[in-house]
Amino acid sequence: MHPFSQPASAKPGTAIKPPERCPHCNSPRLTTKGSRKRKRDTVTLYKCRSCGRVFTPGPRAIRNKAFPIPEILDGITTYNLGHSAADTARLLSTRYGHAVDPSTITRWVKQHPRLTTFSRLRDRAAKLFRPAGQIRTLKLYHRQVYAFAYHRSKLQMVRSGTLDDKRRGDTKFRSLADFLENAHARCPHDLFRRGDGARGSELAPTFVDPDGLIIEKNNVATDTAALIIPSVGSNHERHAKLQRFMLVNDSTTVAVEVPIWLDENDIEQLEATYGTELLPRAAHQQAGNQSEGSGRLITGHIDFLQVRNGAVHILDYKPDARTNKPIAQLTIYALALTRLVPGLRLFDIKCAWFNESSYNEFFPRTLLPHSKAGKR
Questions:
Q1: pLDDT in tens, 60-114
Q2: 149 and 247 share one domain
Q3: Which is the most buried residue in 172, 175, 266, 353, by most CB within 10 A?
Q4: Residue 119 belongs to some domain of the structure
Q5: 159 shares its domain with 259
Q6: DSSP string covering 313-362, please?
Q7: CA atoms within 13 A on the CB side of 33
């Protein structure tokens, strides 16, 4: 089975995230109210102590469907990997033990057009790679295991300038496609396992302007998160399943868990260009990072990397997006890409963090002291 179309656990009542609030009155005063056996699964019922309504959990967009929510999402993903509707129906019937009509598959996809924009590209992608070859996943053993993955057909379209119909012929990010396809072989994995390196997610935000412009806006990423996150019962699986769904089903996400790194030379060059100190040497030395004697080091992994509207977008999912603002982390990721990808300018990069209800975007070049340098 392909790793990007794995069905969720079939154990009744455990595949869906428990609700935090009542969908009718938004009260957090909830209690379980038994379960309901349906034709194809069993779901837990919840009762709101404030309004008295009884409801089933799950994302609002596909709640109370005839099929289990994980099966619907699995069907959409399997279809967009390049399987025909008939083949997708057959695969789901085998996985879940009941019949699925091909017309049901196409109906699921059509019901979520904003979240499944890759559907318009899937016929072209099918001519490039078979379903099992659309996604390449490589495990990175960097203190913990990261599933770095990229969409091979989308990268081919980035190279040929056919990913975005509105910008057909634009191939300026072809070097990004080259980097992603070679990132695993090029990545200095030993640096990620060293004890003296700094994580991009742990850097102090001293090098960015705290009053820089952050734009809160509507984005399909929030709608996708609102669909996927409540559909997954396991805390440790939610993030990965959101990544898998976006990589396969939207037309802009080209890679997930992308490794980035900056060594002493990179850091010095960036500090000279932008007139700021990314990782203070004093703090680096005080933390006991002198033994290995190879200078400062910053590593990290980009949650989502997208190409859309003539720009590269770096996205980070944060469950607590209202209070956790990874501005320094995302800015470092953007700076690292300009060092790792030949010809990529900070001017061409946007960053954002999001959850199910919030999407916050900024231009990293505007948060650095020498903002004009970002056009280089």
A1: 655 546 788 889 999 999 999 999 999 999 999 999 998 999 999 999 999 889 9
A2: yes
A3: 353
A4: no
A5: yes
A6: EEEEE-TTTTT---HHHHHHHHHHHHHHSTT--GGGEEEEEE-SS-EEEE
A7: 15
